[in-house]
Amino acid sequence: MDNKTILKTVDHTLLKQTSTWEDIKIICEDAMKYEVASVCIPPSFVKQAKEFVGENMQVCTVIGFPNGYNTTAVKVFETKDAIENGADEIDMVINLGMLKDGKFDEITEEIKAIKEACKDKILKVIIETCLLTEEEKVAMCKSVTDAKADFIKTSTGFSTGGATAEDIVLFKENIGKDVLIKAAGGIKDLDTAKDFINKGSVRLGTSSIIKMINNEEVTGY
Fold first, then answer.
1. Could you confirm whether 182 is annotated as catalytic?
2. What pLDDT is attached to residue 186?
3. Is the residue at 100 inside a domain?
4. 127 inside domain
């Protein structure tokens, strides 16, 4: 697998709380230069970033991030606002407390509401695998499938762990045929990136791939 193939899967990500427009501009420039799948940035920068990249790059942003415990109404508003500002893709975080209470139907309905707010834009659902049991992960595969979201995503990168090969395999075995997989967080080398792709992940959420390819030191998300 060559570097270009890997780059085509990457959501080039910068979600640090202290990110400035200059930081965001740099990753947008890198995203266009290396022809990645999208640039994933905080909602407050979406409008400016979309004006900067135009149709040259997909702009992704996050909803209910990173904890997921906003109300559904707030998440729907955030989604509509992001799309009005130019977002092409939405990565939402599920309500983990609701999940721990076993309210799977309510989670499914929330995802459906956000998918409706997305209209024709891509929706990825972050389930934060590092905080879940295997049974809960399987239940979320069903919820994401039933809600007709486009992707199931492993992680925010802000919790106790990121993507694992085991979770990619579990997703692959339990999601519906129309749901795709995004691995995010903790992708520290090209071999891991390749392994995730080979196991079924069609997107990688990371800020590190370009540095890896250029043999630079990797830190952060």
1. yes
2. 81
3. yes
4. yes
